[in-house]
Amino acid sequence: MAVTPKPPGRFHHGDLRRALLDALAEALREDPPEALSLRDLARRAGVAHSAAAPHFGDKRGLLTAFATEGYQRLATAQRAAMAAAARDPAAQLAASGQGYLGFARENPGHFRLMMRADLVDGTNPALCAAQAAAWQPLAEAIAAGTPHLDAAERHARMVLAWSGVHGFAALAAEQAGPVLAGEAGLEAAEAALVEGLVGACLRP
Amino acid sequence: MAVTPKPPGRFHHGDLRRALLDALAEALREDPPEALSLRDLARRAGVAHSAAAPHFGDKRGLLTAFATEGYQRLATAQRAAMAAAARDPAAQLAASGQGYLGFARENPGHFRLMMRADLVDGTNPALCAAQAAAWQPLAEAIAAGTPHLDAAERHARMVLAWSGVHGFAALAAEQAGPVLAGEAGLEAAEAALVEGLVGACLRP
DNA sequence: GCCGCGAACTGACCATTGTCAAGTTCCGGC
DNA sequence: GCCGGAACTTGACAATGGTCAGTTCGCGGC
After folding, report:
1. When comparing pLDDT for B7 and A187, which is higher?
2. CB within 8 Å of A13: residues ≥ 6 apart
3. Residues of CATH 1.10.357.10 domain(s) within chain B?
4. Using CA atoms, how far apart are residues B135 and A129, in angstroms rounded to an integer?
């Protein structure tokens, strides 16, 4: 994840695309997504500010590519949590939620960027595919736990699960962390939330 | 809500504070929150580009004041929905959620602005007070429906309700409206979500 | 080996933005 | 009446993202 600056003297960078994405990751660990500046990222990569255009088109293109990687990591986080959990539907669904919340908690900048319709091009095909893939683990866990329900009702359960997890993550990342935490701490609140959601989603 | 431009010839506007807030509301109906420009708002109010400073300090100050009004309207929307609903706890809690979702659906720009930690000063006392007041109706509805629970468990239910409603509103406003809606439409999805949340929050 | 073609990259230019400093106009209290 | 201070204007500044004509380079064809 370390930014590889352009070798001095060289004209071509070699892998500027990767370097800019790494610079973005680095900058995002220091500042919130809205403070990102194309010029600063180019500086970090040791390159002129207009060098990103051939690779990403414009700033939005770069951020969109980064957000796409974020959705892939979000899916990975869920799958990893599910693999480590017991195989029964309730545990799997809980693990999926914990994976989602864990990613958001550990990568607040990345998560916030992904949810910003102004910074990211929501119509980008690669992004949409990654989004859909990130929604998959949750859908599978719900489907496995509710074999008796029809499609519409199952969709409603998915919306419930996704809204609950996403709302908590968004509130925690954006503003209201302390209020959510109560006196028991953020992770305890997370656990209670997941428990409540699993119960609501898998009820007969 | 119409912007009152400065009377031509006059030096003082009279109520520039109000005029700027109205201009902000107007601009927010045309463009997303991130496209707001202080200079454009001043133009709408018929005033120089730096005239906002004496009233609001800087751009954040103006947006924070507007967000504060948003939280007041959010609380009002919930109270209105609750007043129109049946008096039993489940109906009251559902009404609170519907009020929250209705406000977000009808004022997407305002809602998105309120949730943006970069545009709004989250430490502003007036804003914090309005936020707390907006969280009140939900808290009361939960408390009325769960008299048998202790404080910690009740807090967990509140977090569940708030996260669920907020997550849906945020996803719908920011990006994923169509996915949430399914084939039944957004309002149907809203209704199903609220029903699920009420059940989960008021379970014994 | 060399040559040319196209991609990668540079540097300058532009419009726009938020903030600041200094000046002007006006209201209200004395 | 006048005078202090608040409201407002004007002009300047630094920073940003986008564009565009050029320069430099890697690489495949000869």
Report:
1. A187
2. A6, A7, A19, A45, A46, A47, A51
3. 59-202
4. 36
Instruction: Tell me which fold the domain B59-202 belongs to.
Output: Tetracycline Repressor; domain 2 (1.10.357)
Residue B50 clears pLDDT 70, i.e. is over it: yes
pLDDT digits (tens, 9 = 90+) for B51-72: 999 999 999 999 999 999 999 9
Instruction: Give the pair of three-digit tokens for residue A64.
Output: 């969109």
Q: Which nucleotide is nearest to A36 (CA to C1')?
A: D16
Task: Determine if strand C comes within 7 Å of the CB of A16.
Answer: yes
Flag whether residue A168 sits within 8 Å of chain B, measured between CB atoms.
Answer: yes
**CATH of the structural domain B16-56, one choice from 1.10.620, 3.40.50, 1.25.40, 1.10.10:** 1.10.10
Measured CA to C1', what is the nucleotide nearest A60?
D17
SS3 B118: coil
Please list the residue range(s) of chain B that carry CATH number 1.10.10.
Answer: 16-56
What is the structure's pLDDT at B15? 86
Query: Is B115 within 8 Å of A160 when comparing Cβ atoms?
Result: no
Å between CA of B11 and C1' of C28: 16
Which residue does chain A place closest to B200, by CA atoms? A200
Query: Residue A57's pLDDT is what?
Result: 93
